[in-house]
Design a protein that fits this description.
Helix content is 19%, strand content 25%. It is α+β, with helices and mostly antiparallel strands and 166 residues long. Strand 1 and strand 2 form a beta hairpin. The N and C termini lie far apart (122 Å).
Length: 166
Amino acid sequence: MGRSQETFGKKDNEKKRAKKKTEKEERKAERQANAKSGAPLEEMFAYVDENGNITATPPDPTKKRVIKDEDIRISIAKQEDREPEDTIRTGSVTFFNDSKGYGFIKDSVTQESIFVHANGLAGGPISEGDKVNFEVEMGAKGPNAVRVKKASATPPPAAAAPAPAE
């Protein structure tokens, strides 16, 4: 069996790896030399001033303000602070594809286009131009119209009293 042949490329790659390794060891030694190990704890502290900036000096205790937890607002308002939305909305069907079973409804108040799927229909089939009543629920990709029913042009007739017998 012959011995493996060392090509120029193999030797070159070997040299590059060795060079990388020594450079890495040099960087490691430099980091260790410049590290502040054993520095006093006070030098490692960082403080936040009244404007939210990070400083190395401790704050003045005479300027201290007490803030209640309830006054801190991080992102959105609490649910109780919101006005309840009208659950039943009205709008018109701008597009509906019967074969694929989806379409869009334009809300008459907000002019927002809301997705509707055939599974969300409650009052039979709908077509383009129909006036509909619907509710909005958040789906995976945004608001979806559910419990969609055709809006009747005239209110439904009241239950008629039986005609008097003659």
